[in-house]
Amino acid sequence: MSGILYVVGIGPGSMDGMTLKAREALEKSDVIVGYKTYNALVEPYFEGKRYIETPMTGEEERCRLALEEARGGGTVSLICSGDPGVYGMAGLVLETARSYPDVEVRVISGVSAAMSGAALLGAPLVHDFAVISLSDRLTPWDKIEKRLQLAAQADMVIVLYNPSSKGRKDHLRRAVKILGTVLPGDRICGIAGRIGREGESSSILTLDELAGAGTDMFCTVFVGNSETVEIGGKMVTPRGYRSER
Amino acid sequence: MSGILYVVGIGPGSMDGMTLKAREALEKSDVIVGYKTYNALVEPYFEGKRYIETPMTGEEERCRLALEEARGGGTVSLICSGDPGVYGMAGLVLETARSYPDVEVRVISGVSAAMSGAALLGAPLVHDFAVISLSDRLTPWDKIEKRLQLAAQADMVIVLYNPSSKGRKDHLRRAVKILGTVLPGDRICGIAGRIGREGESSSILTLDELAGAGTDMFCTVFVGNSETVEIGGKMVTPRGYRSER
């Protein structure tokens, strides 16, 4: 008997950031697997399920655990914050699922922090953009540096995921230093913090100010392109519609 | 009396791709403004509203119309497909709203085609990526070319919006030619078509094959990075978790 494993993005952090399709997948599931913070978020809304908590790291074990639960005919949801395909579990699940041919994997997309953070700050992503993670846990730092430099040269808006954490306090400062070799110090930037959760915050500042800004692992950082402006406290990148005028 | 204008992303194309927050905004609204295709999508679910249809272009007029409706105390939703902040109306609304200080603008994010198309294809975006539109309606083509080249040099996954339309049939072919100066012809690529709508399709192919592929304005194209692979008919970019093994 074949089982189903939904890899579900629950959006930025509050229940209402989830899509109707994600909610449906959770409703259909017998078992919900996830990091404890995300399980705690959905548990009050989906009763009568079996919840399995896994630690933040140990992603491979989490995938195998979810696939084991689905093997044999179960319906299981593995939940991720934001979108499961953006620095999420979708890829690893599909890789691991090769050993579980009797499980059908369905990826249910969600609103990633690039979009929810952008909405909080205004509209910084209205034109071409690059999404780059500053975590060097799985990527060599020199590759991250190269991407930052080229994205800045391309005049794309840049969204930085994982700007800092306990183990890497100075990554944002180092990234700003590299961006500063291409971009002016007064470039408009923004920080979105704890999006959709208690303590949600947003601030608009310059690239120079960003170097010294306090961020944590719940922050997403936006670096504007050459046309990005601040309008009434919002960060806005014009698409160019003004040429119609 | 101040009004509220929600700029709402309704997701990829079917009702269940919308977030609960987006649904809530539409429920609260007296007036819903949008392109006719999107209005037709939501109208059966939100009755008793006044619907105002606007043509696909004429974005400035659409913004002003929505702001005029909200001025004086109304609650209005301006709907966009995908996310309103990604090649959407959020920026122009915030710019235009300077002339409407009595209207509060709230951007409600949605699932953009980068995410929903990725879920359809598998998990191509698990690592850093760039989102680039091939429409030169509002951007000079040489700027688009430069961004393509630099994104390819940065070894980022590349998502192409607006790969073609009636007026620009050969843009995808021209883009592939530029990418081909940096990337090998056998680079794994994917096309997601009519995401979340009738006739939804997906295909995985090489960069060489992409040059001759038929796409339309409802397609989103994905160009893998150097680690992207095809696994059981899915396009997967590993994040690097394998290093844990």
Overview of this protein structure:
The structure is a homodimer of 245-residue chains. Chain A starts with a strand and ends in a 9-residue tail after the last strand. In chain A, helix 2 (36-42) links the parallel strand 2 and strand 3. Chain A has helices spanning 20-28, 36-42, 59-70, 90-96, 113-121, 141-153, 171-179, 207-211; strands spanning 3-9, 31-35, 50-54, 75-80, 103-108, 122-123, 129-133, 157-161, 188-193, 201-206, 219-223, 229-231, 234-236. Chain A is of the alpha/beta class and 245 residues long. In chain A, the strands form 3 sheets. In chain A, strands 3-2-4-1-5 form a 5-stranded parallel beta sheet, sandwiched between helices. Chain A has a 5-stranded mixed beta sheet with strand order 7-8-11-9-10, with helices on both faces. Chain A has 8 helices and 13 strands. The interface between A and B is large, with 74 and 74 residues.
